[in-house]
Predict the 3D structure of the following.
Amino acid sequence: MKVDASVCLRCGACASVCPVNAIEVADARVQAGKNCTNCGICVKICPVGAVTVEKRRV
Amino acid sequence: MRKEEYDVVVVGAGPAGSMAARAAARTGAKVLLLDKRRELGVPVQCGEALAEEPLRDLGIKPNPRWIAGEVNAVRLISPSGIEVSIAEKSVVHGKVGFILDRKVFDKHLAMLAAKEGADVRVGTLVDGLLMDGKKIAGVKANSFDGRMEVRAEVVIAADGVVSRVARWAGVKTALKPEDIESCAQFQMVGIDVKSPEVMEFYFGSKITPAGYAWVFPKGEDMANVGIGILGSRMQRTPIEYLKGFVDSTPGLKKGRVIEINGGGVPVCGPLPKTVKDNLLIVGDAAHQVNALTGGGIDSAMRASDIAGEVAAKAVAVGDVSEKALKEYEKRWREQMGKRLERYLKAKDVLLSMSDEDLDKLAKALQGVEFDKISLTDMLKVLTKVNPKLLWKLKGLM
C-alpha cells in the first residue's frame, strides 16, 4: 500500500483493518511493512481516500 | 540504546492510556506512559462528545480549558426531516455533557497521570514487544532520541483502534470492514448553530448509507460536523459524503472548515478477551465502544481506571498471570458489558432500518417527553406508540 502524505490524517483506520498487521502509523507518516500483501482493504476503509495499492488481489 | 525498567508500561496516551497510567501510579506502581505523538491530543480522531457522569465518577473536575461546549439535549433528524428532541430533565447542575477540546483534554489527562507519579514519554513509537521466551516482558520503541527498551511486569495496550500491541501478543484485534465506522469530520466556523446546547444527529441514506451525520456545537457559530459510515457499506469516501452533507445543509454550507479530522471507530462490540499473562487491553484497542453512537471515551476511561488499578495490585502481590489480571476483565464487564452488548444490538437494528422505517420511528417519537436520554426509555415509548416496530426491536428490551 502507498499513502499520500498530503491527504492522510494519520487516523489509523487502515492499520485497524489490515489482516496481516503490516501498517505502522507513526506520528509523521503511515507506511506498510514488507509483509503487506496489497490486499486493498485499507484502500476501502480510508476516510479520505489517501491509500492506494499497486495491484489488487481478487 | 536506552534501557528502562518499570512495573507497568502503558502504550498510548489517549484517554484510556492516561487513565490506566493514573490509576496504576495511584495504586503504587512505577509507571511509564508512552505515546508516539509529539503532541498529545493531535490529530483529533473524534466527535469530542462526553457525558458529565464519567468525569464525576472518576474524580476529574471539568475544566473550562478543555470544554468547548456544554450540551443538555439531543435532536434526531429523520431522512425526511422529522425532528425528535430529547431533553434531559433530571440533570445535575443543568448539564449532561460536554463537547471537549481533545487537544487540551488529552494533555490534561496525561498530566493527571504524571501528578500521580507516572513517567510520560511522548514522541516514542512502540514497534514491538520485548519477550522473555514466550513471556511478554515489556516493549521496544523508537523514541525521538533513539531506540529504547522498556522492561515491565505488565504491558497495558491502549494504542487505540490500530491495536497493534495486542496483535503482537497474539490477540486477534483486526477489524473487518463491517466492524468499523469510517468517519470524517470538519471543525467548522461561521455556521448557524440553532441551539448551542443541543447535539444533532442526522439519519438517512442520502446523507450516509450506514451510520449518521452529527453536528456537535462548540458555541454559537462553531461545531464539529462529522459523518460515519460502516466500512462494508461505503460507496464513496466518508469525506465525500461529508462534503455532500455540508453542501445540502443551509446553516452549514456558509461555514468555513478550520480543521479536517478522520478516524475509524470499532463498532463490533468489545473483544471476547482483554487479558493475557502480563497484558491488559483497554479502550478502542479492546473495542470498548458504544456501537450505537460510536462514543468510546466514557467506556475507555472507566475500563482503564480499573485496568491500571488491577495491574498495580497484581505487580504488588507478584502475580501478573492472566488469572490474576482477569479481575480487570471481570470488573469492566460487570460495569458495562451488558450495556455495550445492548448498544451493539441496537446498532444492528438501526442499520437494518430503511429511510421509511426511520421516518416512522421519528413520527412515533415526536413530541414524547423523555425523562432521561436512555435507550431503554426510548424503546419503552416506541413500543407503546408503534407496536409494529416492535419486531425489529426484540432482544433489546
Summary: The helical segments of chain A are 13-17, 41-45. Chain A has two helices and four strands. The interface with chain B takes residues 9-13, 15-19, 21, 23-27, 41, 44-49 of chain A (CB under 8 Å). The two ends of chain A are 15 Å apart (CA to CA).
